[in-house]
Amino acid sequence: MKTCNVCGKEKSLDQFYGCGNNSPYYQSLCKSCQHEYNLNKRRMARFGITSTEYRILVSQPCEICGEAKGRGPGKMVVDHSIAGNYHGVLCHACNVAIGYLRHNPDLCERAASYIRKTRGESDVHAS
Ligand SMILES: [Zn+2]
Ligand SMILES: [Zn+2]
């Protein structure tokens, strides 16, 4: 067993990467922390922000549905353009939803009208 320097959890050695061929030593952080670290490095390169800034961003509530707490950083998505410009923070579900609606406001409004119609609510846009 070995204790990870980052998450502080005690894990078996197969949860750690080795330090290269035939080395008896293991990395001081566990595989999941190593993955998180690598992801953070890529995010930082993409958004031009620090790991801490990223963590603050993904702890914000979703800008569409307001979902936030207790869902873990992986559940929140930093929305960005293809060029990498930062837009806002969304939960995974809302991000996927607007993706399917092609980030098109007209389609989103039509989707809203459709939902109102199926619920039998009067549609302010229809009349
Ligand atoms: Zn760890
Ligand atoms: Zn959401």
Give a written overview of the molecule:
The structure is a single chain. This protein is an alpha+beta fold. It has two domains: 1-49, no CATH class; 60-127, His-Me finger endonucleases (His-Me finger endonuclease fold). The chain is built from four helices and six strands, in the order ββββααββαα. It has helices spanning 31-47, 51-58, 92-100, 105-118; strands at residues 2-3, 10-11, 16-18, 26-30, 76-80, 86-91. The strands form three sheets. The chain has a two-stranded antiparallel sheet with strand order 1-2. Strands 3-4 form a two-stranded antiparallel ribbon. Strands 5-6 form a two-stranded antiparallel ribbon. Bound molecules: zinc ion (2 copies). Residues 62, 64-65, 67, 90-91, 93-94 line the site of one zinc ion (ZN).
Keywords:
4 helices, 127 residues, two-stranded antiparallel sheet, 6 strands, His-Me finger endonuclease fold, alpha+beta
